[in-house]
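Lab notebook, page 48
Experiment: co-folding of the full assembly
Goal: obtain a model of how the components sit together before planning crosslinking
Operator: M.T.
Materials (sequences as entered):
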Amino acid sequence: MISLNQKTLALPASGIRRFFDLVLSAGHDVISLGVGEPDFSAPWHVRESAIFALEKGFTSYTENAGLSELRTEVSRYTGQDIYCPKSEILITNGVSEGMDLAFRATIEPGQKILVPDPGYVMYTPLIELAGGIPVPYSPLDLDSLRNTNANAIVLNFPGNPLGNTFSLSELSRIALLAKQHDWTVFSDEIYQALTFQGEHTCFASLPEMKKRTIVFDGLSKSHAMTGFRVAWACGPEHIIQGMTKIHQYSALCVNSIAQVSAIEALRRGENEVEKMKEKYLSRRNMLIERLDKMGLSFTEPQGAFYIFVQVPNKDDVMFCETLLRDQSLALVPGSAFGEMGKGHVRMTYAESMETLSMAMDRLEQFLSK
Ligand code: PLP
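Observation: model returned without errors.
Model output:
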């Protein structure tokens, strides 16, 4: 019989998935604010470009690093000509693959990597698979970064699940620490286009940071293209070349049709992104108002499409289970995002205003009992 190896056996199932198996068994009346995925379809002109590419028979492998036209568009989109399309950009199957490649290409066994807590569920397992040791820090308290002997740090801003971002002075503080401790910086900026307060600053654009930083961004969230699986990693040439070696053995390249659509999205998708962003912003404002009225505490979101709310009775798993049973409303327990997420729940506002409003009615009713 085939058996799983120890590393795979030791991997925990995602806390989000585990909870959503429960949701699936809960019936059809359930409102779910659980999945971190836009409720919009990809813009029509982007879908149309995929149809044209198929019609034209664009069905072969592309360059391992991705179509050169796409890398040129990524370089322009990332701004300020920071990255050379020929040597410093790799097109990946989502930020998920990009970060996996980066961890596998750079982490030595036993190295400590600072990860946000609460933070996105992918970082810890992928770092462990790469042989590293994740060390949690709070993205809301940069003092938690002092006195660590880590080799690298994962940044995520705007962040999932907190919806937080970093001001320029906070980024400069992190940059100073990165210099002092000689950190590699894995900067997950997948929500950068959905920044509501102030301008997003790419971490690599800070003085002296490009040489130690790998930046990740993609089209899943900003352009509502989760299923296309197109993203990119940008970094120093030797790191991108190393990641490309692993990518060429494990994936060869990203789907050719999806890459053509990505070019279209980056060239002509800006208006659609702005429209979706406006919708997210008004939904966010509505949620803030409703949650405030219910007397709940939360981190005010500055970007992405999540709001992280403190639950009254501290036990987030029990809170979510009871809420699901009593009101058919599904939220994600904060503990799925790390130790420091305990006592909280994550709600996504990538849902229609009508659905969100009904969800808030149910939550209000639940809390009034
Ligand atoms: N990074 C963060 C912070 C996310 O929230 C997600 C998806 O939810 C991802 C990366 C994965 O993105 P992709 O679809 O590009 O793999």
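Interpretation: The chain is about 40% helix and 15% strand.
Next step: discuss with group before ordering constructs.
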